[in-house]
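Before a colleague's protein record goes any further, I have to sign it off. Thanks in advance; the entry in question is below:
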Amino acid sequence: MARQYESNETRKQQIAEAALQVLVHDGVGGFTTRAIAARVGVTDGTLFRHFRDKQAIVLAAMDLLEQELLIDLAVEGEAIDRLEAMFRHRAAFVGSNGSVGRLIFSEQLVHLAGDEGRSRVAAWRGRSVKFMLAALMEAHEAGRTREGTVPAALAQIIQGVLLTFALRANIGDPESPEDLDARIDRAWATLHLLLFT
């Protein structure tokens, strides 16, 4: 049987996707070139025909992760509706992807990716916080937040609830997609009751 060769861009995409899957399923401890190559169906050496080193592979995986994370920041509409869409998307993403949620909230991904990775993670976090603060400030100015609350503190509360979704997924407490959806519904309903009028 003839060997099938992929274009350089196709293979790079496959390697980045495999690297992200290794991070999701095996965590940082299982993040090896052998594990990545096995998921792609190539040898370890093939990886380095497409990437200069392991750090470059991590950065490519981070690009995919960033695309997924920033989808929810493009939502339009009323401030609280934007916050809800962001919350639901993030909670579902980190709640169903185990190690990725932990990686987003920790420094482990930064450790693998070096200084460039540190800059990227800081930028992700910055964009997310900026999005939340803008929506919360808009809701606050419209009189939609509870009296006496401060938008920055409300953003921390929302981030804390998202962190619980990541932690629960990370400790291996499996739940069906339906159960996760129900938990997200309950969490948002509670946040809405506590934070907004």
Remarks:
- The mean pLDDT is 88.
